[in-house]
Amino acid sequence: MSVPVLLNGFRLSAMPRRSLFSTLNADNDRVLVIIQLNGGNDGLNMLIPLDQYDNLANARLNIIIPEIDILNISDTLGIHPQMGGVLDLYNSAKLNIIQSVGYPEQNRSHFRSTDIWTSGSPADESWTTGWLGRYFESNHGEFPEGYPNEEYPHPFAITMGSIVSETCQGTAANFSMTLNDPFSLTPLTQGAPGDVPDTPYGEELEFLRTTIAQSNAYAESITGAAEMGANMVDYPDGNRLGEQLKNVALLISGGLQTKVYVVSIGGFDTHANQVEAGKPLVGEHSTLLQNLSEAIAAFQADLQAQSLEQRVVGLTFSEFGRQIRSNDSYGTDHGSAAPLMVFGSCVKPGVLGDNPEIPGQVEPQEGVPMQFDFRDVYGSVLMDWFEVEEMEIRSLLHEEFQYLPVLQPCTAVNAEEALNFGKDIEVNSFPNPFRDWAAIRFHTEGEWVKLSIFNNLGNEIRVLTNRRLPAGQHEVRFEAHGLPAGNYYFRLQLDGRQKTKRMLKL
Predict the structure, then answer these.
(1) Which domain holds residue 394?
(2) What angle do CA 98, 100, 106 make, to 5 degrees?
């Protein structure tokens, strides 16, 4: 069982790669909080690549934040000036930033891309279950029959709002229940008991009765936890996300054993008025980022004040980023990849990946190219937080899963130990710019190698190699005859390492 196994050259192991959190009870203690940023967050306005600032300013002159106002994370990376609360988490070693998260064949439809992110499906397949729904179902395949019960008396997941999150959708039912106010849960009417006909109508009626009974039973446990719980800090007034996270902290404090909470904040579809004309520090996106930052900061402070922060990890996601160029309406249009944040005292603090590369000449509709597949983020959290086996991750998400060091043991560390993942890869392309072909040269340690070419819309147009290569220097030729001029990106994946870089075809 301890011998490494390879699938398509990527390492498999019978147990999670690292059992980081063995001091906690995985069944009862750990909580994952997911913050969904609805609409497509402009990652380049949230996290600003200072080493690319001039090119970025040229591409979005009417919305760019003045460099003097940007809060520095490092010499090369800054954060929006309204996100001081998140910056404090970073400086306290409680924030991991993952650069340029997306997926191959980026879809820029809100509905389809949200389906992809919540289901964990490939872009060219439609899955009817959510990535967390499949995880719950792997251990509770009979759900909803027989739940709640003595061993599992509380909801597996809670969505703050009125519509259950598709992340928790199972084959037969959604493992999540909706909640707005834990103190105002009114029992649902179950109707008179009795036999049901052996017909499709009878099956639907029986399912409905089961769901109502289950909801009523769960409501009792939620109200009980809310009455036992507490909040130890003040949350920002008028902040809807803050109200949701306040209720999450209240229920965790009160002993609810729910594993997953999904909260959301809308308004990120900033085609227009992302900033006010002539006032780049003011506008819709600035307000959204302020609400996001203040809500997360208050939530983390609440958990710390109640000695709960080692039980909770949070992550953000949005269906896509925005295009590099701004538009004439002081906004940005649908793009490709964007940064993702993981927060808590058990994260590996720092930055995974490189700053996105901003070309001097940005193509129309060009988005930020993907560095990290969002399914690798999901899978790594499942492995290290919920101790899911790596082989099961590949089954739940995708076979080419690559583990990312997102979490670590819940001990105090220095924020300066930030990890810039992927910078140890030796890779370059030449000539660059090129006309008909380019060579990509890289060094491997004998692992499986996947080398792909992406266009500036986020579509994977070529796979140059996808096999195990011997240790040493390698060179792969990219034939570009017939392809239009413009910006292209190669993405090199090695075992646990990856890098994305730009190539310009003349």
Answers:
(1) 5-144+156-161+258-417
(2) 135
